[in-house]
């Protein structure tokens, strides 16, 4: 699995460059800040992960967080450049598995709706959707594996 | 008798200056672009102020000053007073007070009432309807439940010494696990003992809480817009209908149905009214109270036969944040005693495009709707189609009537205050 993870990370960097070039990319309006670099082809395995992640997102997250990840003012937080999305993986995985319903600042604002627990998603789905979120809406961060989700779920 | 003329002249002059700022519609003209709004023929709009904070509900005094309740503190203050001293329609002075955020604000019998998300306060007014002591409001109601979701406490007063307070349900549909796919509804719904309804308190009581008031109406998920109708002496409310029929029950509802159900309903209430939440929702196509899927419903089975019927059913998820019965004399006859409803705009319609972001009008006669609702003021969002609510430039949130019959509309995105006038 180390290998797959490496592929994903490699692919992610390429994706960052790709966004820079194709500004018409459907769900990305935020300019990427990644430095221009030779743009190798996105690995097919990463493309597949992102496509699967987007499918989960559109099924289980899009109503609240919106197609562009910009959320709903005062109610549902954005998933763009937040500490939760880009930071500690364990905390991020737990938000999806256990939900969140307390006053926390997200990009300087507080949101009043609850985030329901999504423990019914399997490890692969959680990994895919979080890898998608961490590499969409202008975000660039390392992907999440199903082993990582499994470990967090087991730790309770 | 010789002196009568000069005295009369002085008196007349005094009358004019003491009415300052005279709500003389003649001096007031619409902005060249109608402040970006689309309005029916003959109406115009001007922006009275902007960038004042998250402007929720508003109240306009007999002198034309505007009190605005802010959702979140701005410069550590939660209530803004806007004044138009030179009578050109634009507020050039602004002061603020109150150290709490919230939504509700209302003027009645020499007092300004304002709410946080847990309490209702009131401030004594002087003869200019300015607050005498901004630092020391009386606490009228306290200790109301605030569990984040649906926590705004809108207020309205009747003519018999009561204040009505919405206490929204801290839940979407009273599932054991809120907004969680497959979770069943709690039977009976325990939230209804302290939320999900309208509570009534004495307008001059001190430190009242649940035990001192009464639950006037129940089965209301969340009400933000409410008003007292003086034609039939009754409380009218706009409910925010439930979310997520598809997300929670994908086998029963597809995304399109979920975007179009249930209605945002207007109810006329009386003491003891039950509007049926969470057990039913109102389906405006079948014109029926449908059993909620959390309670064994299938989209067809009816429920709660004794629950109130809506008096108006609007499209789903538009988020009615203010209701105002128009009693002014400026607008044409058609508008007299009719209802204006400010729709904040939807978020719960993805993947369909969002809707709302406008102020609607419903004609009334004898305290009942006398025609279909229509869009009155549109264009707040600044774009034809809103795909995500965060894109909207402005969102209507509060309504108030000015002494000359102008209609004021607040926006909680940039904090704009609009004034709608009619010039024959």
Automatic annotation (TrEMBL), chain A:
Residues 48-137 form the Cytochrome c domain. GO terms for molecular function: electron transfer activity; heme binding; metal ion binding. It holds the Pfam family Cytochrom_C. Keywords: Heme, Iron, Metal-binding. InterPro entries: Cyt_c-like_dom (IPR009056), Cyt_c-like_dom_sf (IPR036909), Cytochrome_c-type_DH (IPR051459). This is Cytochrome c domain-containing protein. It comes from Chitinophaga cymbidii.
From TrEMBL, chain B:
Residues 38-420 form the Pyrroloquinoline quinone-dependent pyranose dehydrogenase beta-propeller domain. It holds the Pfam family TrAA12. It comes from Chitinophaga cymbidii. PANTHER family: HEDGEHOG-INTERACTING PROTEIN, MEMBRANE PROTEIN. Keywords: Signal. Residues 1-24 form the signal peptide. InterPro entries: 6-blade_b-propeller_TolB-like, Beta-prop_PDH, Quinoprot_gluc/sorb_DH_b-prop. This is Sorbosone dehydrogenase. The keyword Metal-binding does not apply.
């Amino acid at each position: 699995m180390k290998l797959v993870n490496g592929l994903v990370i490699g692919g992610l960097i390429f994706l960052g460059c790709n966004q820079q070039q194709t500004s018409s990319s459907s769900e990305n309006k935020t300019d990427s800040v990644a430095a221009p670099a030779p743009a190798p082809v996105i690995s097919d395995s990463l493309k597949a992960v992102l496509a699967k992640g987007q499918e989960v997102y559109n099924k289980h997250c899009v109503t609240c967080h919106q197609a562009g990840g910009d959320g709903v003012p005062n109610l549902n937080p954005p998933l763009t450049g937040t500490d939760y999305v880009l930071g500690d993986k364990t905390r991020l995985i737990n938000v999806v598995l256990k939900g969140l319903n307390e006053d926390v600042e997200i990009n300087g604002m507080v949101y009043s709706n609850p985030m329901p627990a999504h423990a019914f998603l399997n490890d692969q789905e959680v990994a895919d959707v979080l890898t998608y979120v961490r590499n969409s809406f202008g975000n660039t961060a390392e992907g999440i594996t199903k082993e990582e989700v499994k470990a967090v779920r087991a730790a309770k | 008798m010789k002196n009568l003329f000069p005295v009369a002249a002085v008196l007349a002059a005094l009358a004019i200056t003491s009415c300052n700022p005279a709500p003389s519609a003649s001096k007031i003209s619409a902005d060249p672009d109608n402040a970006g709004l689309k309005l029916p023929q003959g109406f115009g709009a001007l922006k009275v102020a902007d960038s004042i904070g998250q402007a929720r509900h508003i109240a306009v005094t007999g002198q034309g000053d505007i009190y605005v309740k802010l959702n979140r503190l701005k410069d550590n203050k939660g209530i803004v007073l806007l004044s138009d001293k030179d009578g050109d329609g634009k507020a050039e002075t602004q002061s603020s007070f109150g150290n709490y955020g919230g939504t509700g604000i209302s003027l009645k019998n020499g007092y300004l009432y304002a709410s946080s998300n847990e309490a209702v306060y009131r401030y004594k007014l002087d003869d200019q309807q300015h607050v005498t002591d901004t630092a020391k409001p009386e606490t009228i109601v306290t200790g109301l439940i605030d569990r984040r979701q649906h926590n705004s406490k809108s207020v309205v007063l009747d003519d018999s010494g009561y204040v009505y307070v919405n206490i929204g349900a801290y839940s979407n549909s009273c599932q054991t696990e809120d907004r969680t796919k497959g979770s069943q509804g709690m039977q009976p719904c325990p939230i209804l003992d302290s939320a999900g309804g309208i509570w009534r308190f004495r307008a001059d009581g001190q430190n009242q809480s649940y035990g001192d008031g009464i639950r006037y109406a129940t089965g209301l998920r969340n009400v933000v817009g409410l008003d007292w109708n003086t034609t039939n002496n009754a409380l009218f409310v706009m409910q925010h209908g439930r979310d997520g029929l598809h997300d929670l029950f994908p086998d029963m509802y597809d995304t399109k149905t979920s975007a179009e159900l249930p209605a945002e309903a207007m109810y006329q209430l009386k003491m003891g009214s039950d509007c049926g939440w969470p057990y039913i929702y109102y389906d405006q196509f079948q014109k029926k109270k449908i059993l909620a899927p959390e309670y064994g419903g299938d989209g067809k089975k009816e429920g709660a036969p004794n629950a109130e019927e809506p008096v108006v059913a609007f499209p789903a998820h538009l988020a009615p944040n203010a209701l105002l019965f128009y009693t002014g004399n400026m607008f044409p006859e058609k508008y007299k005693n009719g209802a204006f409803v400010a729709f904040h705009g939807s978020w719960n319609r993805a993947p369909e495009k969002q809707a709302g972001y406008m102020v609607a009008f419903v004609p009334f006669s004898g305290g009942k709707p006398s025609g279909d609702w229509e869009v009155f003021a549109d264009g707040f969002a600044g774009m034809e189609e809103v795909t995500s609510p965060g894109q909207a430039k402005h969102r209507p949130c509060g309504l108030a009537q000015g002494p000359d019959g102008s209609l004021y509309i607040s926006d909680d995105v940039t904090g704009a205050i609009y004034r709608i006038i009619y010039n024959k």
